[in-house]
Amino acid sequence: MTKIECILRPEKFEQVKEALSKFGVRGMTVSQVMGCGLQKGRTEIYRGTEISINLLPKIKLEIVTIDNRVDELVKIITETARTGAIGDGKIFVYAVQNAIRVRTGETGDKALE
Fold first, then answer.
1. DSSP assignment of 36-105, as one string?
2. Which domain holds residue 7?
């Protein structure tokens, strides 16, 4: 099992979610987060004073899937979320030791079905 964790632009999330749904992804966790990277925030004028906003709103998407679907999911996310500009996000891939469905006690890949 593998966990795919993505940091995305908020405006691209719905497109990514629809593309993943078409591929058959049934479960995901979504969080609204703040972050910065190469984009380094932006500068705004507030009441005549210039202020720097370092942390920008992002969406964190987490999916745990069986190993043979990882490459396809990463490709779908990458192609759908890409704008070509700084700030498109990152994808992290982690090995998952086990998963347990709380309701039934199923473990491993069966817990993901």
1. -STT--EEEEETTEEEEE--EEEEEEEEEE-GGGHHHHHHHHHHHH--SSTT-EEEEEEE----B-TTT-
2. 2-39+51-112
Q: What is the pLDDT of residue 49?
A: 80
Task: Decide: 65 and 2 in contact? Cβ < 8 Å.
Answer: yes
Spatial contact of 72 and 23, defined as CB atoms under 8 Å apart: yes
Q: What is the C-alpha to C-alpha distance for residues 106 and 104, in angstroms, rounded to an integer?
A: 5
Nearest to 80 by CA among 91, 66, 64, 92: 91
Give the span between the Cα atoms of 29 and 42, in whole angstroms.
28
Query: Given this model, what pLDDT does residue 43 score?
Result: 72
Top mean-pLDDT range of 37-46, 70-79, 82-91:
70-79
Q: Domain of 73: which CATH number?
A: 3.30.70.120
